[in-house]
């Protein structure tokens, strides 16, 4: 999503653009999310600091987070930085930076989707967050006050109102719910990215399907070495390869503390005539149930493991009985769960910047849980910076140099 939208913004500005993707656009990380465009996502997903939850994570028994013991030595340095960056004051700085980053994200998607003839993929019914305890509802009061202060429509429906919003949702196990009224949901995230890619081509951009195996400087510009295809040379390059960005950048000697949050999904047929009209987040367990073309998509929370580690979809197995308490999920549509990887930085802010010491190489990755939401605004922002227009918003919180102090 981020790469395609950056390419569109650059083509609109008059640049000659080639987008390189090892698969068709929209087949990797952007394919497997919950399909929610989240203007309320200004509050970052920070590492919990509750002792009880930390013990649960250490014992590897929680639904919303899991780690592979064989990968622990590899992921531990990132987890430590993530924990340190999740102090309340640092989380607040990320929230404040996100206010301008997320501004206009829904409208930007709406305009692109209309132009790409893909508006039919989007539903404007908001997002539900269901809570299993009164304490959990009280814990959200500060966040909800922030959102209302920003002018966002947020409500806390009672059981009757909740049943009107989602007639087939079982509310017996719930203490309450939050209805974020402004998010849009997409019934096929991969198809939306594909539609945007088709729009890119109609605007004059080119798409090359090949794997980039290396980047290097070349005659005042940049060379992309491709597997089984001729190299590409350009005046400037944008690295927006999501979870693959770190390895390509380290090949140039620049190390940034990016980590990986792996995630799974699987589609299920609903039982009988049951249906959902919007995505539902189980606050206590970290999974999402989202209505998709293929059925109800059950997504997992975060798994911390090497990017190339074997799949271990234990979180989906743990989430299933809890999800079925709320909704009549039937048999799985596909045999094997999908697995993808979210690129994240410890402070849960992306890097959108010219690479330090590598003039002409621009970075647009690390959007974590919100790459699908932020693609159009992030792409527009980076294109403006590349053209010397100062960016769409203050670029300082998203500079790579913020990690220079370690």
Automatic annotation (TrEMBL):
Pfam families: DAO. InterPro entries: FAD-dep_OxRdtase (IPR006076), FAD/NAD-bd_sf (IPR036188). Residues 1-385 form the FAD dependent oxidoreductase domain. GO terms for cellular component: cytoplasm. It comes from the Bacteria. GO terms for molecular function: oxidoreductase activity. Keywords: Oxidoreductase. This is FAD-binding oxidoreductase.
């Amino acid at each position: 999503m981020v790469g395609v939208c950056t390419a569109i913004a650059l083509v609109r500005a008059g640049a000659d653009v080639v987008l390189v993707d090892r698969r068709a656009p929209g087949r990797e990380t952007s394919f497997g999310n919950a399909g929610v465009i989240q203007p309320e996502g200004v509050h970052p997903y920070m590492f919990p600091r509750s002792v009880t939850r930390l013990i649960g994570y250490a014992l590897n028994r929680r639904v919303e987070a899991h780690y592979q013991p064989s990968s622990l030595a590899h992921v531990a340095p990132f987890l430590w930085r993530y924990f340190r960056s999740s102090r309340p004051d640092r989380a607040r700085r990320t929230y404040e930076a996100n206010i301008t980053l997320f501004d206009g994200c829904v409208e930007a998607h709406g305009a692109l989707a209309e132009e790409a003839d893909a508006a039919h993929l989007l539903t404007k019914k908001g997002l539900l967050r269901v809570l299993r305890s009164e304490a959990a509802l009280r814990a959200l009061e500060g966040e909800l006050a922030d959102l209302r202060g920003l002018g966002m429509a947020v409500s806390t429906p009672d059981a009757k109102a909740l049943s009107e919003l989602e007639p087939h949702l079982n509310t017996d196990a719930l203490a309450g719910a939050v209805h974020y009224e402004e998010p849009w949901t997409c019934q096929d995230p991969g198809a939306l990215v594909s539609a945007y890619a088709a729009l890119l081509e109609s605007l004059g951009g080119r798409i090359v399907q090949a794997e980039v195996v290396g980047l290097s400087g070349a005659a005042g510009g940049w060379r992309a070495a491709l597997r089984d295809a001729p190299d590409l040379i350009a005046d400037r390059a944008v690295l927006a390869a999501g979870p693959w960005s770190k390895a390509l950048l380290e090949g140039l000697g620049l190390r940034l503390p990016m980590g990986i949050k792996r995630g799974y999904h699987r589609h299920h047929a609903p039982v009988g005539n049951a249906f959902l009209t919007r995505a539902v987040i189980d606050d206590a367990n970290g999974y999402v149930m989202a209505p998709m073309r293929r059925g109800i998509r059950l997504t997992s929370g975060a798994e911390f493991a090497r990017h190339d580690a074997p799949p271990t979809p234990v979180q989906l197995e743990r989430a299933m009985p809890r999800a079925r308490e709320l909704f009549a999920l039937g048999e799985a549509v596909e045999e094997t769960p999908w697995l993808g990887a979210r690129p994240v930085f410890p402070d849960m802010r992306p890097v959108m910047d010219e690479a330090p010491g590598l003039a002409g190489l621009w970075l647009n990755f690390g959007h974590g849980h919100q790459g699908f939401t932020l693609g159009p605004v992030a792409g527009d922002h980076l294109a403006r910076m590349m053209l010397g227009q100062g960016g769409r918003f203050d670029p300082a919180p998203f500079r790579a140099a913020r990690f220079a102090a370690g």
